[in-house]
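Lecture 7 notes: from sequence to structure.

We start with a single chain of 113 residues. Read the sequence below before looking at the structure.
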Amino acid sequence: QVQLVETGGGLVQPGGSLRLTCAASGRTFTSYTMGWFRQPPGKEREFVASINWSGSFYGDSVKGRFTISRDNAKNTVYLQMNSLKPEDTAVYYCSILPHKGSWGQGTQVTVSS
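Now the structure, written as tokens:
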């Protein structure tokens, strides 16, 4: 079983940047599709981005601003977030896709002046 831990969240001003990190342990995840999701306050969880051998994919609201990448040697997935907006405020989660079972603790991202 793979354990995932998300870090890197914080408070940032609009227009700023953050890089989130998802560290996997327990099993190598080289062959897995990995994804980032987020849950804004009072809203449903939504897809942000995913990455696998064929490429990366993004939700419409983050295209052109966010970049997902992975380092298989480190069992790590990253989410570089640029030009952040207040509507990006959410708890961010990473997951193996398709998602099964419970979610991790996530990391809080707050975009506010």
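Residues 50 and 56 are 6 Å apart (CA to CA). Keep this in mind for problem set 3.
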